[in-house]
Amino acid sequence: MGIFQNYRILSFLVVIIALLWCFSPVLADNGSISITYRGSGGSYIGDVIIFDGYNTVGNTTVLQITGPGLPAAGVPIYNLNGPAGAGTPVEVNPDGSWKVVWYTANIQGINQMQTTRYYITAFDLSNPAKNATTSIMMAKREFYAVPTPNTVETGDYIQILGYAEGGAPDIHIEIQDMSGNVIHVYDTAATNSGDFNYDFHINMPPGDYPVIISSATMKTSYQTIIHVIPPQTPTLLPTTGPTPVIPVSLVTAGITVTPAVARTTAPASLSPLTIIAGLITAGLVVLLILVLGRKI
């Protein structure tokens, strides 16, 4: 009879333990995501803007921008010409925080940006239903210009993209060295809508070069800097060894990932219910040992 009672107690405890472990994951918190804009809520096109937040859902936050003239599904914050639905990935820190510094002067398709309100959405790569959105008012300056790309190699071409409110037929571009000596002068004109661009060849040695854009029809001038670096020597890939593979999930999402950048996946945190279930399980196991020891 004692052995039979022991088996009944053991069976009861096993059922309780199984139920706890089956239900606790279902009741666990699935996490959330947030996004915050650091600033007054308004910026000029070409400014540096910071977004940050928390993602307790997964290890990668994806950022998209929507607004007038852009797809409703969103595009990457660094490529307004990117595929609809794609986004810019941002790594999540082990504590769940994430941060991105948005250099708006480096946006591909920056000429599409208008003086209007844009919406930045952050979502988790593995669970897009977990998302958050903030908005920011962007404005075109009366007169501005953006080197594209901002960092260029000696021997390459660079493009100056700019805007002059009301249009200007006499855009004057001066390239200086750090001593203030003028080394190149170019002239172009803005369209009636105010947009202008000019391409030229970088024949200067590595260094930083101030660029001054002016016009007799504009009240102010605009200054920016071109960063020139030495020509990069191509790195020869090994003829043997595995080829880096981009996960299919990232390809279908339209997200560009650099395989050479490795990151350590942060360990998943346990929910409070899971911890409680573990403590109860440990207590029941101890109780079982005491009961069986006493019966024996």
What does the secondary structure layout of this molecule look like, with pairings?
Blueprint: H1 2-27, E1 36-38, E2 42-44, E3 48-54, E4 60-66, E5 75-76, E6 88-91, E7 97-103, E8 116-124, E9 131-139, E10 143-148, E11 151-153, E12 157-164, E13 171-176, E14 182-188, E15 195-201, E16 207-214, E17 222-229, H2 248-252, H3 272-295
Parallel strand pairs: 2-9, 11-17
Antiparallel strand pairs: 1-3, 3-7, 4-5, 4-6, 4-8, 8-9, 10-12, 12-15, 13-14, 13-16, 16-17
Helix pairs in contact: 1-3
Shape descriptor reads elongated
Instruction: Please state roughly what percent of the residues sit in beta strands, choosing from under 5%, 5-15%, 15-25%, 25-35%, 35-45% or over 45%.
Output: 35-45%
If classified by CATH, what would the architecture of the largest domain be?
Sandwich
**What is the tally of helical segments?**
3
The ordered H/E elements are HEEEEEEEEEEEEEEEEEHH
CATH topology of the largest domain: Immunoglobulin-like
Structural class computed from helices and strand pairing:
alpha+beta
Number of strands: 17
Indicate the percent of residues in helices. 10-25%
Radius of gyration in whole Å, from Cα? 29 Å
Low-confidence stretches: 22-28, 239-269
Q: pLDDT average, as an integer?
A: 78
Q: What is the terminal separation in angstroms?
A: 12 Å
